[in-house]
Description:
This protein has helices spanning about 5-10, 45-60, 75-85, 105-125, 130-150, 170-180, 205-295, 300-320, 320-325; strands at about 15-20, 30-35, 40, 65-70, 90, 160-165, 185, 200. The radius of gyration is 43 Å and the shape is globular. By secondary structure, the protein is α/β, with parallel strands linked by helices. It has 2 domains: about 5-100 and about 155-235, Rossmann fold; about 255-325. Strand 6, helix 6 (about 170-180) and strand 7 form a beta-alpha-beta unit. It has a 5-stranded parallel sheet, sandwiched between helices. Strands 1-3-2 form a 3-stranded antiparallel sheet, with no helix packed on it. It is built from 9 helices and 8 strands.
Amino acid sequence: xxxxxxxxxxxxxxxxxxxxxxxxxxxxxxxxxxxxxxxxxxxxxxxxxxxxxxxxxxxxxxxxxxxxxxxxxxxxxxxxxxxxxxxxxxxxxxxxxxxxxxxxxxxxxxxxxxxxxxxxxxxxxxxxxxxxxxxxxxxxxxxxxxxxxxxxxxxxxxxxxxxxxxxxxxxxxxxxxxxxxxxxxxxxxxxxxxxxxxxxxxxxxxxxxxxxxxxxxxxxxxxxxxxxxxxxxxxxxxxxxxxxxxxxxxxxxxxxxxxxxxxxxxxxxxxxxxxxxxxxxxxxxxxxxxxxxxxxxxxxxxxxxxxxxxxxxxxxxxxxxxxxxxx
Length: 327
């Protein structure tokens, strides 16, 4: 299902391009027609390109990576700041600091300096300075917060850049291209789309137009973050259940082992008893035949048989305790 539709984009004025004399010929595939000296953007292609860009942004958010939004023009800065702050992504709405990407460690030092000033304020060190020094530090802190406060949580290079107005943010696009960082951008008819990885042809001068496109991209990022959180929770549940199952299987294995030991002990006891019984029967038969051969009387034979049966009883008593001993 498309994240936007033709009527919604048309109502927002996404189809309005620049004057014909300002156009970039490389934008010809995305231009529908010319009317009154103004190029009209093909909104059917815009809908497709928004879906493509939203799908890519969703996958990046799902993998836990950050997308840096850049919009320093007056019409876009408030909209972008509001939408992006809601999804906890970094953004730049003031002047683009030169070397933001290509000289990222230096930018991080400036951000750490801001954190140091906050720490000084918290632990009471700030109170030891004079009034003039306090004023200077406060002004420096306010300037850092204005320019870099929105990227304080960006601890490493972003996975992608989202740019509003490619011409105005040419430095940001150039740095991203040098570092092979993918670039999403709202591209008007006066811009060069060959520098952009995910082109969204549309009007980048109208606040309502920017807002409609930002809503679609931010919604996709929100879905990606939600799916990432769900997968993480399911992974924790699966790992805990696997640990429980392993312990259960271990207990069952131990119980089965005990049963096998007991069964083996019983079988051994039965075999020993059978062997001793057979030996006793053979000795009884030998004694009877000897008595018959020697001409003993019946009472004497009965006495011999009783002696044999008496000798069997201790053997059975000795065999019976072997099962507990095996346990």
